[in-house]
Amino acid sequence: MSVNRFSWFLTHLHLCDNNLQPNKNEINYDKLYKVRPLIDSLSKIFLHHYIPNKNQSIDESMIRFKGRHSIKQYMPMKPIKRGYKVWIRADQSGYICEFQIYTGKTDSVENNLGKRVVQDLTQNIKNKYHCMYFDNFFTSLGLVEELLQDGIYGCGTVRSNRKGLPKNQLSDKKFKKGDSEGRVSTT
């Protein structure tokens, strides 16, 4: 495609009405307003055309982006260091069932971000007893208990200093290479 043709598409393709865009100072301001119709359409299509497996996972993904935008994230320990962070719920085949683009911190401090993300991404599979797997960023005792009440099984690694963990866990000094400790709910 030529540069002129691409420029024409770029200037004539709009997904929403700019006159209806809320101001940045308003409460319901959406940083992704201009692409929100496309994001919502993709989410509906992903959910409608595929029946996911019972085993699913939630994790973060980065979309490489080097330009300037307020939702761009910098994560120095990741393979893709700069870009858009996306929370994804995928099944065991790798199909993305749902996703949520992280738009950054709000004015107030958000506690339990991982818990909120998991709850948002599992709204459509409540009471279907899927098995959700996630890493230590998301895992907390409260989250796993709430998922079980919603009819979803949860499994994940946990940080040793996470609040609400049982006091009778082994100290890190007693572990040898390859050792692990696990907990299972009986309810």
Commentary on this structure:
The chain is of the alpha/beta class. It has one domain: Nucleotidyltransferase, domain 5 (2-Layer Sandwich). The protein is built from 4 helices and 6 strands; from the N terminus they run H-H-E-E-E-E-H-E-H-E. Strands 1, 2, 3, 4, 5 and 6 form a 6-stranded mixed beta sheet that branches. The longest helix is centred in the N-terminal third of the chain and has 13 residues, at 36-48. The N and C termini lie far apart (59 Å).
Backbone CA Rg: 20 Å
Q: Architecture, according to CATH? A: 2-Layer Sandwich
Total separate domains: 1
Choose one word for the global shape. elongated
Which runs of at least 5 residues are low in confidence (pLDDT < 50)? none
What is the CATH topology?
Nucleotidyltransferase, domain 5
- Report the helical percentage: 10-25%
Mean pLDDT, nearest integer? 86
- C-alpha end-to-end distance: 59 Å
Largest sheet: 6 strands, mixed
- CATH class division: Alpha Beta
Briefly note the structural class of the backbone: alpha/beta
Number of helices: 4
Indicate the proportion of strand residues: 15-25%
Order of helices and strands: HHEEEEHEHE
- Based on DSSP secondary structure assignment, what is the total number of beta strands? 6
